[in-house]
Amino acid sequence: MRYAPTQAPVFTLTTGPVDAYPAVLRGLASPVLYDYDPMFQATYQRVSEKLVPLVASETVPVILHGEPIMALEAAVASLVAQGDVVLNLVSGVYGKGLAPWIERAGGVVETLAVPYDRVIDPAEVAAALSARPEITVVSVCHHDTPSGTINPVEAIGKVVAEHGKLLLVDAVSSFAGMAVDAKNSHADLFVTGPNKCMGCPPGLSILGVSHKGWAKMKANPDAPRASMLSILDWEEAWRADRPFPFTPSVAEVNGLEAAIDLYVAEGPEAVWARHALTAAACRAGVLAMGLDIWPAEESFASPTATAVTMPAGVDEQKLRDEARARYGVVFSSGRGETAGKLTRIGHMGPTAQPIYAIVALAALGGALTALGHAVDTGKGVAAALAAIDAG
Amino acid sequence: MRYAPTQAPVFTLTTGPVDAYPAVLRGLASPVLYDYDPMFQATYQRVSEKLVPLVASETVPVILHGEPIMALEAAVASLVAQGDVVLNLVSGVYGKGLAPWIERAGGVVETLAVPYDRVIDPAEVAAALSARPEITVVSVCHHDTPSGTINPVEAIGKVVAEHGKLLLVDAVSSFAGMAVDAKNSHADLFVTGPNKCMGCPPGLSILGVSHKGWAKMKANPDAPRASMLSILDWEEAWRADRPFPFTPSVAEVNGLEAAIDLYVAEGPEAVWARHALTAAACRAGVLAMGLDIWPAEESFASPTATAVTMPAGVDEQKLRDEARARYGVVFSSGRGETAGKLTRIGHMGPTAQPIYAIVALAALGGALTALGHAVDTGKGVAAALAAIDAG
Amino acid sequence: MRYAPTQAPVFTLTTGPVDAYPAVLRGLASPVLYDYDPMFQATYQRVSEKLVPLVASETVPVILHGEPIMALEAAVASLVAQGDVVLNLVSGVYGKGLAPWIERAGGVVETLAVPYDRVIDPAEVAAALSARPEITVVSVCHHDTPSGTINPVEAIGKVVAEHGKLLLVDAVSSFAGMAVDAKNSHADLFVTGPNKCMGCPPGLSILGVSHKGWAKMKANPDAPRASMLSILDWEEAWRADRPFPFTPSVAEVNGLEAAIDLYVAEGPEAVWARHALTAAACRAGVLAMGLDIWPAEESFASPTATAVTMPAGVDEQKLRDEARARYGVVFSSGRGETAGKLTRIGHMGPTAQPIYAIVALAALGGALTALGHAVDTGKGVAAALAAIDAG
Amino acid sequence: MRYAPTQAPVFTLTTGPVDAYPAVLRGLASPVLYDYDPMFQATYQRVSEKLVPLVASETVPVILHGEPIMALEAAVASLVAQGDVVLNLVSGVYGKGLAPWIERAGGVVETLAVPYDRVIDPAEVAAALSARPEITVVSVCHHDTPSGTINPVEAIGKVVAEHGKLLLVDAVSSFAGMAVDAKNSHADLFVTGPNKCMGCPPGLSILGVSHKGWAKMKANPDAPRASMLSILDWEEAWRADRPFPFTPSVAEVNGLEAAIDLYVAEGPEAVWARHALTAAACRAGVLAMGLDIWPAEESFASPTATAVTMPAGVDEQKLRDEARARYGVVFSSGRGETAGKLTRIGHMGPTAQPIYAIVALAALGGALTALGHAVDTGKGVAAALAAIDAG
């Protein structure tokens, strides 16, 4: 039997959109209140305040009403003023992707790049900052999802802070899947969203802003105001007694609250642990099958996504099509420079359960074998099980 | 008994966000697919194409992934180029609100304004266009919600078309509640959303674009590209075989499909008829209670919202607080220039059922009486019933 | 406009099934667990224990997995042994309906009946018990829904207890809408369900059993065992460490928990108050319109349903059809002896909000008028509003 | 990491309750209508009629409002009259379980039994019927779930029909998972439910009745009437213009319609194929791991559940606890005589997807190994994958 392309898949093991937790879907289906109803205003403040200990930013996190790409665009446009020299740390497609926005904002891009299977060395950041003291802002993508690699953002943040620079962190696909927040990354703008490891559908962003971050944005005459791209407009909007700049996405906010409640009830450490274990099991299986992971060193690998290097001769699109058609399992492709070179298996939110690694490996191994690149899937599964049992 | 502010209201009779249809809420709660899953890509194309006969635009409508204020901002930024002279028709707060965006885009604003309880006269539009042939774009808000008035957009559109100008129509809170679409309004950019009369939560916008509209945006070097505010980026995104500029709001798209299916199953004409009858009953009741509606003439009044003029001496905020506390009924306030001067009763989507007029009148009359402005609520209800029975 | 019979109504103001609370519907949609999964077993025990303070029975309430008619049948079959003389108190159709089941169980029915617009006098119960000391069981329907009347079950229960008899109370449509429970009614078998005033869909029953009740059932050799009609089988099933006699209705149990949580969060007294006020407003409106309520005295009238006497010459079925077709409002008919003689307006769970009285009165008045029996609906609504405001 | 008993499992791979399809859960969450609302009456008739081609009974199937154990109890009580000699075919715990009900109904039980790892031989049925011509009714459990075995009900039914006897078939856990219906099994009472292979929660039963079946029940003076256990009461209830004997479970009916629609849209043959393939893959894996399946011959094995024989020395309860704690995977135990001797893996409805066999095998193998009974899980998974790929 084969699953038709228009037939529902069985498992969505992508790097996003990911399946939502059932409780989040039920949250989305809650009655829609008027945004100025006092009950919704109270909800909005409560949700915002529930984010405080999770995001660990100096001020109450801002919820933006579009998926995180909007928050990233808004963050760059707000933080980067005309003439700012911005050190953009590039270890992958997403990190590189900030550059055009920096330039659009009138910033001068200084790039510190590494090959896309490696991660940024904090010492090189320090060197770059010492070499060009005119740098005012540093930007980094924590989990460059198209590569499945994790930059050492705590150490990088420490360096940036020591140099007194502002730091923009894109933690969209790592937040809530591992121990990263605005505080431990020393971020002035910490951009994330609930649609990856928190198990919400795409539609909202979350920003943690430091006092310095607010000051810089306010001082920027070109920072978006009276715009969907404005962060400034939303500074006080979390307060029940303040107006919204425009109508918030009520249903998504209800879904977010459900996601936060799940996350807190399970305990962030426990959530991170199952992300880490799922990824570890997945990597163990991939390697045992004789395949490679994309990150040059296993220590670079993300706990929220496993990037599997395509073996020579395997058409990556066909691999994913085969996994879906044969087993109903959906993976993510690479993006940009990594497109065609790797397949990504997401471990995010509801799919960050170790047993999902088995599902992924079986589908991956089966599809590769079907395409003529025979692998020992049983061995991979056995290795993954051993990793789970050791976890 | 009184409803506490943080206790759920019984009826949300606002001009938005409005309650969603139950089937829409269930649609939102559908499994979240990967945006590049072929099943979701097919869904996206199918939803887009289902909009074609409803929006009646020359090209397949664009879905933007933020509530309609985003689409309006994007529309102005895309359509208005440096130096464009834009005739902005202003009969209310929302119409006036386009001006700053036009100026931000480098446009020169030419305003044709009428008092906010009146509507634009197409003959004056013709006169203005004849007087200033350098005008390239005309913008109009069809239902200026803060006033509850409906501009004669078909006649206006005809004039604009005859003069060969481009027309931007904001039909956010009228579309799907009455017979307005891109074709009959001669709109080049027809901006609306599913979050008013289609009974979805806020989070998406819909744009119907003419061939001329696309050409103008493409010719505008400053039209947003590679941005959340871009319309151009999404031109082909409705096609299942084309990429999305960024991740669409999957859950909201599922909700939109449910809303479209409901709308088509009931039949647009039937939906419009119940909006019209609800509003007619509401107005009949308001007038019978000795109150005034805000529109200077009843023919200006919207079928999707009834704006009730505050009687002298009544604090509008207190009125709404009282209606909520006493009866659990939530109304909308005015906005900007109309704030404090009127209360708005929405008739949108699930609340556009004639019997809701009775609920609204009872709560309105009761609250007014409680605040010392005694009205004959029974008489109002009786008049509304008579209107319903005549409908 | 008219609502087609197969088109969804706007308001279901019946005496059941009633609309469910949105949170209950979301509860129903929770993932379905294996009944022997420890998480579900814990849920089942938790839900059962949450019922303890609400039902106030001497032992943990039993949940039966069918709507309350099943619990009533099971209760009679379990409690009544061959030769038991049962005093059946009959003030309406439902009370009378227990007799055949008593006889089927081998009981001898002794009937104390009053006209169906009146309620049982506790003094007459005392007299009957004194006159026939061989009576072992007394049965009473608290809220005889087809009449909309409430028997004084506290006083009756006191009499029964003083005579040392067992008492079976049917509180299906009163429980959670007013202050009635197993304790204050001195019930040995207190039969109710979550599908009326708790706002669940039909599908479950709740039984509160006294120690004497359990003893009597256990001593009855004919009490159902190994049967869907068994109560005995379920005595210990609430405990997480005990087996279920058969598979419980998992989804309905999830819905019940949501309903309990809502009820407790709002506070039973507050819930009862809004039921009482809705009914009071409804009665005030009915009387002000020149109509009669069915109960002979207003003090007999239920806070959870208002039975309106049909005026001479009005076809009751046509009245309800007209209210639905014209306004989308659904009422309940009478049953048995009251069929055709009255229309019932439910005030149960989500519809027990005072403003719903206005909806009911408008639809009732409008439909009567449409059928040629003109009433002053405005006067009715005004009287109801006054009652609400006084509440 | 370990999953706490009160923490949600990841996969419920039981023989029921099974997880419900998402669309069924959304169906359950639909607005609850009054049972006598014409829209619900139309729904009830439509749902009943949609069952006709699926159940393939001579008359419109009856929906009973309790889980299938109720339908089985009702079926025996209705079909078996005082003095009827009933040939009860016993190949497992469920088949045997009918005997006490037959006796309660006044029937004389004639048992044709085989060991619980085998199935009934139609030739022996023929012999038994020839030997005891006074037999009037034959009863058989199609899929004796506690054994995971499938009786050859088509051949048995043919024999029974040829002998002119009435046949009661329990197809609760096979219907909709394989090609069995009232017609091809020659059943006079075909008992099933939507809570297994149709992916609904427990709460409803479905009965297909032949003309002879109705006649026999009507002729039985002891057949339940005016009872929750009555089938007769419901004969005409499917018709929109007939009353319900008592309030149906509205929400469950809505869920059932969603399940039927899914089943028909996918196509019964396609649904059966994925059940069969999932089971085949599971069995292949079990055998490849060196374990045994419970059925004495693979041809006896059910496509909807795989019963795995416990290896000597393994505590079956501990095995299931370990699979849940370690991997979040829930299996079913045996029942009665098979309890402790086997573990069951369900392939029903949403879990009847071949890839679930991999999940099951990994959890089974991992848990066995953890308990000291090392198996080659990788080999099992490889065998299962090969079976899937061959399917």
Short description:
The first copy, chain A, has helices spanning 22-28, 38-55, 68-79, 93-96, 98-104, 122-131, 153-162, 211-219, 250-266, 268-288, 316-327, 354-370, 377-390; strands spanning 11-12, 62-64, 85-90, 108-113, 135-141, 143-144, 149-150, 166-170, 189-192, 205-209, 305-309, 329-330, 332-333, 342-346. Chain A has 391 residues and is an alpha/beta fold. The longest helix of chain A has 21 residues, at 268-288.
Report on the architecture of this protein.
- Four copies of one chain form a homotetramer.
- With 391 residues, chain A is of the alpha/beta class.
- The first copy, chain A, contains 13 helices and 14 strands.
- Chain A has helices at 22-28, 38-55, 68-79, 93-96, 98-104, 122-131, 153-162, 211-219, 250-266, 268-288, 316-327, 354-370, 377-390, and strands at 11-12, 62-64, 85-90, 108-113, 135-141, 143-144, 149-150, 166-170, 189-192, 205-209, 305-309, 329-330, 332-333, 342-346.
- In chain A, helix 1 (22-28) packs antiparallel against helix 9.
- The first copy, chain A, starts with 10 loop residues before the first strand and ends with a helix.
- Chains in contact: A-B, A-C, A-D, B-C, B-D, C-D.
- Chains A and C meet through helix 1 of A and helix 1 of C.
Topology:
4 copies of one chain form a homotetramer.
Chain A: E1 11-12, H1 22-28, H2 38-55, E2 62-64, H3 68-79, E3 85-90, H4 93-96, H5 98-104, E4 108-113, H6 122-131, E5 135-141, E6 143-144, E7 149-150, H7 153-162, E8 166-170, E9 189-192, E10 205-209, H8 211-219, H9 250-266, H10 268-288, E11 305-309, H11 316-327, E12 329-330, E13 332-333, E14 342-346, H12 354-370, H13 377-390
Parallel strand pairs in A: 1-12, 3-4, 3-5, 5-8, 8-9
Antiparallel strand pairs in A: 2-10, 6-7, 9-10, 11-14, 13-14
